Amino acid sequence: MTDVKRIKIDVFGRVQGVFFRSTTQEKAQKWGLKGYVKNMPDGSVHIEAEGPEDKLEKLLKFAHNGPSFARIERVESKYEEATNEFKRFRISF
């Protein structure tokens, strides 16, 4: 069985109002990840996800590119131990 990890990703740039959250959710669900994506007051997008490390790497790679209308300036990420608190991947408000 693949080891489950947790990743926290903060994406900065033009990332709100460009379908970033919905595209992130679509990708995460496709890859079987659980967690959430949320717009932050400072204009960034925050992602927390749990799943197999190879799938989290795919999510991180996506975060560096985003959907077509996004303009990524910076991505910060860190891995942590999984808490298994998520039931699915959702958009948080």
Radius of gyration: 12 Å
Total of DSSP H or I helical runs spanning 4+ residues? 2
The SSE string, one letter per element, is: EHEEHEE
Q: State the total count of DSSP E strands.
A: 5
Q: Predict the CATH topology.
A: Alpha-Beta Plaits
Percent range of helical residues: 25-40%
Classified by CATH, the class is Alpha Beta
Terminal CA distance reads 33 Å
Structural class: alpha+beta
Q: How many separate structural domains? A: 1
Shape: globular
Mean pLDDT, as a whole number? 96
How are the strands ordered across the major sheet?
4-1-3-2-5
How would you characterize the overall build of this protein?
The protein is of the alpha+beta class and 93 residues long. The chain has a single domain (4-82), classed as Alpha-Beta Plaits (2-Layer Sandwich), CATH 3.30.70. 26% of the residues lie in helices and 43% in strands. A hairpin with a 5-residue loop joins strand 2 and strand 3 (45-52).
